[in-house]
Amino acid sequence: MSTSKRIHELQINKIRKELKRRDIAESGNKEALVRCLRDALKEDGFDPDTYKFEMKADLIRMLSEIKEELLGSMRAIATGLKTDLEEFRNIFFFSINLLDWMISDCVKNKFDGLKFEVFFIVDTFSLYVKNTTNIY
User: Fold this and answer.
1) Burial class (CB in 10 A: 0-12, 13-18, 19+), 132
2) Number of other CB atoms surrounding residue 123 within 10 Å
3) How far apart are CA 98 and CA 103, in angstroms?
């Protein structure tokens, strides 16, 4: 994408704009307009064959295209991040639920084990008391 053009690459409307900007008559066919513009460039000390005209419309179009590409890329990145965040959220909550279940199960098993030990001690003590009271 070029942002500058030489005199022979210009369209007639751009030549007319350049002539108008320089307060030069802008009527006539393309050849006459190019001749007037070449003369004006020479008068200003420029070489008409190498002088490059900035094409603002091309530059604006190019910048707009770049902007659209960047916006598209940013939307794709945002969508990817949103998806990744949702996946992370799901994994996080699954992990929390799994950890909660594991802790609950561990506490239940420990409690059941402690309950068993308490019952065992109580039963053993009861048996001991029963046996010692039967001796007398």
Assistant:
1) exposed
2) 10
3) 9
